[in-house]
Specification:
By secondary structure, the protein is of the alpha+beta class. It contains 5 helices and 15 strands. Strands 1, 2, 3, 5, 6, 9, 11, 13 and 14 form a 9-stranded mixed beta sheet that branches. It has a 3-stranded antiparallel beta sheet with strand order 4-8-7. A 3-stranded antiparallel beta sheet has the order 10-15-12, with no helix packed on it. A hairpin with a 2-residue loop joins strand 13 and strand 14 (207-217). The longest helix is centred in the C-terminal third of the chain and has 15 residues, at 244-258. The protein is globular and about 65 Å long. The protein starts with a helix and ends with a helix.
Length: 295
């Protein structure tokens, strides 16, 4: 229920950059003609992430798989707005936005022992054929209460499953927000796009705008033989933390807050759980409470 309330359709945001001129690359069994991600940050810590993709392919089986799309989000502090969903079939544009009937699946594996609260909004487009191009645009509006007024974003540049014809990322940062944008390159220098990514920075009306662009990104393979912890992609990172000492200070404040006594409802819940006989029964009751509260 909580996830359903955080998901809606809405017009395209007025702050995003217009679509870039489409460069045509080499078709593949499945590929992205466009992968555009734009972020607008606010001085109070709010973040708006806009995504715009166009998926196409030549393999009917792979295209059928891509007809099922996922939008991950945390409904406790994020909401999803879908702006566009259409099939581009030759010169025809078939609007399928009204047909989207998302299901909401908890984004935790069976093996996970930690409930994270993230959800996948899943929707299936059944009439997706070879020759079609699937265009989707959506936003995730977020204000993580743990981050407060800080912002922190990690954006992977390439994709392990899909080559990309046109890749762009744009960041809108108010000058009052001391956030930095940096590129962390792939440890495998043969596959890093660092030298090919174009960067443009402008400032207007108190807002810094940084735009990164690239073309003809091949499918990114992963090397199982690389050392544990090796970076196997290029990443764009945005952070308003001044340094690691600032990160440590932020984390210490969270631990201090968690150590404080909680509200009456929380104390009553603990009292109820303590009255249940047996560890397994108590754990089951606690899990049911978490699932009920998360909607």
């Amino acid at each position: 229920r909580l996830a359903a309330r955080a998901f809606k359709t809405a017009p395209m945001p007025d702050w995003v950059l217009p679509e870039a001129a489409a460069h045509k690359g080499r078709p593949a069994p499945i590929y992205l003609e466009l992968f555009d991600a734009q972020y607008r940050f606010h001085a109070d810590g709010r973040t708006e992430r806009f995504a715009h993709v166009v998926v196409a392919g030549t393999d009917p089986n792979k295209m059928q798989n891509e007809g099922q799309q996922f939008i991950p989000f945390d409904p406790r502090y994020e909401r999803v707005e879908v702006h566009r969903a259409q099939l581009l079939r030759g010169a025809e544009r078939i609007d399928v936005l009204a047909r989207l009937k998302p299901r909401f699946l908890v984004n935790d594996t069976v093996r996970s022992t930690v409930y994270q609260g993230r959800v996948n909004a899943v929707f299936q487009l059944s009439d997706y054929r070879v020759g079609d191009r699937l265009e989707l645009a959506w936003s995730v509006v977020s204000h993580n209460p743990l981050l407060g007024r800080q912002v922190s974003v990690l954006d992977s540049w390439s994709r392990t499953a899909l080559p990309i014809w046109n890749r762009r990322a744009a960041y809108f940062i108010p000058e009052a927000l001391p956030a930095r944008v940096s590129l962390s390159p792939n440890d495998d220098t043969r596959r890093s796009r660092q030298a090919k990514i174009e960067r443009e920075e402008t400032t207007a009306n108190g807002v810094r705008r940084l735009v990164f662009a690239d073309r003809d990104l091949p499918l990114l393979p992963t090397e199982g033989s690389m050392a544990s912890g090796a970076v196997q992609n290029d990443y764009l990172m945005v952070s308003s933390f001044a340094d690691w000492a600032a990160v440590a200070s932020w984390g210490n404040a969270l631990f201090a807050q968690a150590a404080k006594p909680q509200g009456e409802a929380y104390r009553a819940l603990l009292a109820d759980l303590r009255r249940i006989d047996g560890d397994a029964a108590r754990a089951a009751a606690a899990l049911q409470w978490v699932q009920r509260e998360s909607g």
